[in-house]
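Reviewer comment 2.1 asked that we show a complete input and output for one of the modelled complexes. We chose the NAP case, as it is the one discussed in the main text.
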Amino acid sequence: MGNVFNFSGKTAIVTGAGRGIGRVIALGLAEAGANVVLCSRTKTEIDAVADEIRKTGAKVMTVATDLTVHEQLENLVNVTVKEFGRIDILVNNAARSFLRGLLDLREDGWDKCFNTNVKAVWLLSRLVARQMIEQKSGRIINITTVGADKAEAGMAAYGCSKAALKHLTRCMAKEWAQLGINVNAVAPGFTRTDFSKPIWSNPDLEKMISQVIPKGKIAEPEDVVGAVLFLASDAASYITGDTIYVDGGTMTS
Ligand SMILES: NC(=O)c1ccc[n+]([C@@H]2O[C@H](COP(=O)([O-])OP(=O)(O)OC[C@H]3O[C@@H](n4cnc5c(N)ncnc54)[C@H](OP(=O)(O)O)[C@@H]3O)[C@@H](O)[C@H]2O)c1
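Response of the prediction step:
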């Protein structure tokens, strides 16, 4: 099979690459040889990650992008193709959440979750798919969550949007399977990033959550990278429409 985890000559876009899980996915893809394009709204954060990547000798570009603005999605795809000539891997990692019960959740909170976590993924994936169809190959990996399957109090807007993303993953996989594009999801469980800091920064809360995870601890962002690399690799060429859970066994209960 050769080294299927060598991504030399391939180009990957990672959304939300400025921090957390997206940052380590970008570092992992670069370490495996890919050219990486980093996007998020905060230019200083993606530039800092790009500096880390450049030190390894990999090629990297940053494109400040608000994923909820269509023209900025078009710009992201256009500058990537201009710089690297192709797009082999798209990791739809960026997301937003609101911790608010359904009785108090505001309409704009619901809309922001769905606009970022579902609509932007559809629109960006569609733009990228058009390029991948010309290439007759491509991998799209959506970062979902165990919260797409499990109801958590206060997380309805986020959980419903991620459940929609899980279904969008299957829809894109089905429609694009014969066009050379594989679309899958990686669903992390509770992971130590800024996103979840309000919980793990409280040692009692972290202990309580760790006790219900079969592995007995919350994930570190690095735990998520292997599943993404696998799905992006030739080892996963017959896998599409699926979800890999990286959750320390959370989905067993
Ligand atoms: N942490 C967890 O416990 C956990 C568990 C399960 C799944 N996940 C999933 O893992 C993924 C990464 O989460 P994380 O914990 O690493 O989150 P994070 O640390 O909050 O990072 C989120 C990233 O998304 C970017 N982003 C948000 N809105 C954006 C927009 N409109 N346009 C462009 N970029 C945007 C942020 O950058 P800017 O704000 O600068 O734009 C940031 O780089 C998400 O899909 C999340 O749902 C996380």
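The radius of gyration is 17 Å. We note this here for comparison with the apo prediction described in Section 3.2.
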